[in-house]
Amino acid sequence: MSTKRENLIVGLDIGTTKICAIVGSATEDGLDIVGIGTAPSKGLRKGVVINIESTVEAIRKALQEAELMAGCEIKSVFAGIAGGHIKGLNSQGVIAVKNREVTQEDIRRVIDAAKAIAIPMDREVIHILPQEFIIDDQDGIKEPLGMSGVRLEAKVHIVTGAVASAQNIIKSCQRSGVDVADIALEQLASSEAVLSPDEKELGVAMVDIGGGTTDVAIFSEGAIKHTAVLSLGGNHLTNDIAVGLRTPMAEAEMIKQKYGCCLAAMIGKDETIEVPSVGGREPRVLSRQLLAEILEPRVEEIFTLVNREIVRSGFEDMIASGVVLTGGSVILPGMPELAEQIFNLPVRRGVPQGIGGLIDVVNSPIYATGVGLVKYGSRNLQTKNFSIGQENIFDKVIRRMKDWFGEFF
Q1: Distance (Å, whole) CA 274 – CA 286
Q2: Mean of the pLDDT values across residues 24-35?
Q3: What are the C-alpha distances in Å from 290 to residues 148, 176, 209, 231, 272?
Q4: Which residues pair with 80 in a beta bridge?
Q5: Predicted TM-score of the model (pTM)
Q6: CATH fit for domain 87-162, picks 3.30.1490.110, 3.30.2350.10, 3.40.50.1970, 3.40.50.300
Q7: At CA 234, angle to CA 232 and CA 240, rounded to 5?
């Protein structure tokens, strides 16, 4: 295995409910998934690290499991970042082209001009994603290098996050004994794994419903147009069940996974479930319909908030190919059906595509972000080679985030 170690890429999805490490190997044909490790996550709340010790413990466990399966040693990872502190905004910059032909230096300058916006001290730029370039009056240009013109304009999507949250993710990884090669926004990673190029071109909204957050990414004409993170997720569903059925959280989670359904109309009238009680009381038998009546309003609320976010972004008319749902919570029966009622658009569940290796193992919305981080990492390794020196990892990651463009071309 040691001979193949150079082209191994590891994605680390640090989620609110689980931490998942996925090892991919770059082959001639693309990417093979060769190892996977998961551990329950206890140190995060709504996508943000609140307890470094517990997070480190869980990361170690997930990495060990993945190392065993892949038969390798993991040295560095591509980590995902999420949480309500993430903000995305669109910006543009204009420059004069020096020699009437666009060079790499011109592209760098125009992106610099586009990112010259006021960002508060406690926030850091995580991604600068070019949407399109405009030369003189010709718009819709994806790759301006070498084209003739006198005026170059760039439209970009800038994603910023709280510095402290990014630092805590990097700290947690370092204490687990691995370097962070880069940090990527979780919904961008998920969209790498579950969306097809056609969907991104036609226009699509990807909704990743995790344990602590719901992440939204809107694509149109092949470029990212809008990103948002809502602090609602599958944990709220579990909490509602625990309160509504008066049962402990752990049992509520099991009931959700085993019997949950978020459309009461899909359930037969006579279906029942057994619910364990709190404090050693006898378990009770309740109608499964009752469970659906607890879940349906909450899922409806999540979708309504997402829909409001899409309308607010102004891109609601651009998502012709519909909505793709991914993330662990969308395994619940009735999710796509309920979403179609609220969005009035075609909806499908998204699972990782375009990979080889352990396909059957990762063939679930749960692993979308992990597989996406591997795909993100492999593309960035192909386009840019970077050396990991001895400098402070945080400065290095931040500097590279600022240096890297064309991430999404």
Answers
A1: 6
A2: 90
A3: 66, 43, 23, 26, 9
A4: 184
A5: 0.88
A6: 3.30.1490.110
A7: 90
